[in-house]
Amino acid sequence: MSSANLPKTMRGILIEKTGGTEVLQYKTDLPVPTPKDGEVLVKNDFIGINYIDTYFRTGLYPAPKPEILGREASGTVLAHGPNIPANLASSLKPGARCVWMGSGGYAEYTAAPAEKTIALPDGLKSETAAAALLQGVTALSLIREAYPVQRGDWVLVHAAAGGTGLWLCQLLKAVGARTIGTASTPEKVALAKENGATHMINYSKDSVKDKVFELTGGEGVKAVFDGVGKSTFDESLEVVARKGTLVSFGNASGAVPPVTISRLTAKNTKLLRPTLVNYITLREEFEAYVNELFDFILKDKLNVRIHETYPLQDVARAHNDLEGRKTTGKLLLKP
Hints:
Layout: E1 9-14, E2 25-31, E3 39-49, H1 51-58, E4 72-80, H2 86-91, E5 97-101, E6 109-113, E7 117-119, H3 126-146, E8 154-157, H4 163-174, E9 178-183, H5 186-194, E10 199-202, H6 208-215, E11 221-226, H7 233-239, E12 240-248, E13 270-272, H8 283-299, E14 306-311, H9 315-323, E15 330-334
Parallel strand pairs: 8-9, 8-11, 9-10, 11-12, 12-13, 14-15
Antiparallel strand pairs: 1-2, 3-4, 3-6, 3-15, 4-5, 5-7
Helix pairs in contact: 3-4, 3-8, 6-7
């Protein structure tokens, strides 16, 4: 599609102030973005919803408004902005199927950074790629760099039946770890086990601390991957083994309050608060992680679980479902 044939307006979700789901405005007359230096224009097929989107909506993470939320999508490259590196221009030609990470995803079209856009391999569906990208690469970076998991390690994953949790369970099984997961219902417990968790704890009935020490012979776990935040942080710190690592990577229950650093001395604990962007800053880092993830999906047949694909105009319902912990797996929007 040439630039002359592109529509002038598009459907999308705009927020002009922070707040609840009522601030998510469905618009039909937003301007189609013009790709700037280093950007490609993508027509989005499937848009990923992530918990971080709720942080920008509520203001937990400040960002200029008005804003179109959304950090990832799959789609088709339509046009290039100026100064696209030659190697990217050749792989991201107009018509190429792709996935991207960036911003402005809750819309029909996005001007995405070419450095964070990658062509899809044959055999990988657009829907699968959108559901896998951000959470899958997040999980992979956590087990490769936040704490380099070794075969036989005991690892605790909070919210094991959530989007990133299910990825962690599958990837940890693939690398030979012994995974203990937490979840709140029998259905979520079963789902996490199906996806690779060695043991599960239903925290609505049992003490996570007691069960972890029982399973590990009183030693605790080498690492905790905690995307829940405020409500689980203290417990996570308690169950880490001597010289263990607590990776706090999310705030689903609220932000973790300031931590007194001397609390780490009791067991020489390592505490990390990573963000994905710092693991994939360079193009070669981004490509390496995405290609490894795609290999896991295509060769190891990892399960890319999609909870539901919502029409774009139903984004408020999707956010309510996500924040109400009613979901297992990935939430997508269909523009």
